[in-house]
Amino acid sequence: MLDWIKDNSTAFAIAIVFHVVFLAALLVNWQMDKPDKIVLEQGDIIQVSSVDANSYDAEVKKLEQQKKAERQKKVQAKRKAEELAKQKKQEAIRKKKEKQRKADALKRKKAADAKKKKEALKKAELQKKAQQEKRRLEEKKKQQAAEQKRKAEEDKKRQAELKRKEQRDRAERERRSKGIINRHVALIQQKIDRSWRQPLDVPSGLQCKIQIVLLPSGNVVSVKVVESSGHASFDRSVETAVRRASPLPVPTDSVIFKQFEVMRLRFEPGSF
Amino acid sequence: MQYAKLTRRVSPFLLLFFSLLFAVNSIFVNQAHAVLEVEIKGGFQSAAPIAVVPFSWSQSGKAPVDIAGVISADLARSGIFSPLNLNQLPERPTMSGSINFPRWKNSNAENLVIGQITAIGQGRFEVKFKMLDIFSGKNSIEYRYEVKQNQLRRVAHQISDQIYQKLTHTKGAFDTLIAYVIVNNDVDSKKRIYTLAVADSDGYGEQIILKSKKPIMSPVWSPNGKRLAYVSFEKNRSVIYMQELKSGQRKTIAQFKGINSAPVWSPDGKRLAMTLSKDGNSEIYVMHIASGVLQRVTNHYSIDTEPAWAPDGRSLVFTSDRAGKPQIYQVAINQKGRSGNHRRLTYDGDYNAGASFSPDGKSLVLITREQGSFRVAVLDLANRYLQVLTRSRLDESPSFAPNGKMVLYATELRGRGILEAISVDGSHSPQRLRVLSGDVREPAWSPYRH
């Protein structure tokens, strides 16, 4: 029970508040329902008296005056009664009105309380709902985070795999392009070697280094002596060899060709 | 020669081996560089193929001189060029605008020579030529000459010199002369006739300097190329003469008792070294030409002869058999006529004679006996290495071309003397010079013409 209260402290509090309010309302109502005091209304009372003749006139007059006064008094009384009645009536109305007002107020209060209660309930409901929603969201968030984490890990894994594959591919490509490069270097060497006629009128032990620029077709665009042999005819024989060997057998793969676009060739006569 | 031939036969394998070796090497070593580096080790050495297209001729018929033919022959004779035969020419352009370069690239040639000969009246001719590099397409050289008909051959030689100089960066020696002695048997008198002649370096354009029924020997050029000195037996004894080529005017230099032989001009042209036996034995002397004062250089009981000046004029080499067999010795000469100690230069074999200096003074050309034959050889003075150039049996009187690249000598073909020239690197066969008739001896190559 206590645990339950603890668990539902808000609801319990709301319930207590609700009961208190309800009892208070009942008390007030019971006091209000007590019957009003019965107020007895007084009828008109007529006063009679005898008068003499001589004094009739006077009497009469007196009477008359008396009558008049009485009349006046009567009128006055009547007016007073009327006034009183009126007052009473007004009072009754007022009381009724008051009663009505009170009833209305009570009613309103009741309604307000009900409304309040309803609202409180609603609020509690809402709060509960909000809490639930919050919990749900939190739960969802947690799940999402977990999901994200899982996904991130998966991505990471995938990426690592991709990277490994890329590395494998690159290594494979490199191996393949190395093979292609080596083969074409050998082909180029062979072709230039066959075209390289050295002059007879130069000393032995000469060397010459040139830089050449090639088109993807293998055609030699330019030949520049980088390190001269010191003998113009030897240097020229090197240039002629390259130009005679043009177009050089370069790789058709445009990426691998990049390595052949600018080449340096070192020329040294073989042993004769 | 033997060694060279052997290694040349092996070379293709070596080439292949080295190519492969270096192919592998270069790839591994140079992969790291941004620029691909490739090693070309091998190639082959050969004479440079060159195309000399027959020059156009402005008139009908044949041109007075086949200039292209003369050039081709000159270049071929040098040994370092191999001109294409006419039937190897893919086309015969005479103007550069009409050259079809792709066709020439497929020919063997590396350079292309074209030209025109035009008769311009009053016996004069205009010769134009152009040499183009077939592979770079650039104009190498271009010249124009205007000459009389009898100078057309000389123009051809001058063109050869231009080509040679452009392609080898060495001055050509085609526009030079050679002097030599021809021995003919006169049919009527059945006696020998000796002729001293001068011709172009290719043997054409021969001019007779002296004819005699007695021997003429040892013609030699003055350093300025305007005179010849020689020995003539026209007075029944040896006399050294000096003769101006243009005027024919001559002067007796030495007619001492005994032998007067082997004259040779000092590089400054003021002295003549010679062999005289006036003092009893054949010795070397130097004569101051203007004063006639003699300076004795050698003094030995053996035969000392065939003096030759070093290019600096400060020493002579000569042949002496003072060691029993003919060998070459060197002796220093000073201006005061004092000579220093002599020094033996040759040790290979039992016969080395008739030496003369290369123009750069770094080597001697001489006749050496090898396997019983007398052959032309070059002695490298720095390392004393003797390289035999010829394979003939009886060579004599070798002399360097003024550019030092070739040697002219006389040799024997079926009992008759002929002239041959050979490249000093010995990498190719000798080139025979045209000789009209008779037995040709003792050639001497002139200095550059001025």
Describe the model:
The complex is a heterodimer of chains A (about 270) and B (about 450). Chain A is mainly α. Chain A folds into 2 domains: about 10-25 and about 50-195; about 200-265, Fusion Protein Consisting Of Minor Coat Protein, Glycine Rich Linker, Tola, And A His Tag, Chain: A, Domain 2. Helix content of chain A is about 70%, strand content about 10%. In chain A, a hairpin with a 5-residue loop joins strand 2 (about 210-215) and strand 3. The longest helix of chain A has about 140 residues, at about 55-195. Chain A starts with a helix and ends with a strand. Chain B is mainly β and about 450 residues long. Chain B folds into 3 domains: about 1-45; about 50-170, Rossmann fold; about 175-445, TolB, C-terminal domain (Neuraminidase), CATH 2.120.10.30. Chain B has helices spanning about 1-30, 65-80, 100-105, 150-170; strands spanning about 35-40, 45, 50, 55, 80-85, 110-120, 125-135, 140-150, 175-185, 190-200, 205-210, 215-220, 225-230, 240-245, 250-255, 260-265, 270-275, 285-290, 295, 305-310, 315-320, 325-335, 340-345, 350-355, 365-370, 375-380, 385-390, 395-400, 405-415, 415-425, 430, 440-445. In chain B, the strands form 7 sheets. In chain B, strands 3, 4, 5, 6, 7 and 8 form a 6-stranded mixed β-sheet that branches. In chain B, a hairpin with a 5-residue loop joins strand 24 (about 350-355) and strand 25. Chain B is globular, with a radius of gyration of 25 Å. Chain B starts with a helix and ends in a 5-residue tail after the last strand. Classes of the chains: A mainly alpha (about 270), B mainly beta (about 450). The interface between A and B is large, with 40 and 45 residues. Strand 1 (about 195-200) of chain A pairs parallel with strand 2 of chain B, so a sheet runs across the interface.
